[in-house]
Structure to design on (79 residues):
């Protein structure tokens, strides 16, 4: 089935995929990239992960600074 893909996460407890948001074209490949939130990843600090829209490879990860702050639960593209 074309048009479907999957991205693996570390653990189901990190709640990877809680939020998904567009991110523009960060890597310059002509395809829009996207953010995926995992609010309980990184020892419950939370993470927002940037993926390539062309090949779905990871481009960057941001980690929260406060335990159980649910960083990555809400994501939004900034213009």
């Amino acid at each position: 089935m074309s048009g479907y893909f999957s991205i693996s996460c570390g653990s189901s407890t990190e709640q990877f995929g809680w939020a998904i948001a567009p991110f523009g074209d960060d890597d310059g490949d002509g395809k829009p990239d996207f953010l995926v939130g995992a609010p309980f990843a990184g020892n419950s600090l939370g993470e927002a992960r940037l993926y390539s829209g062309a090949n779905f490879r990871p481009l960057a990860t941001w980690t929260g600074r406060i335990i159980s702050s649910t960083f990555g639960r809400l994501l939004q593209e900034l213009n």
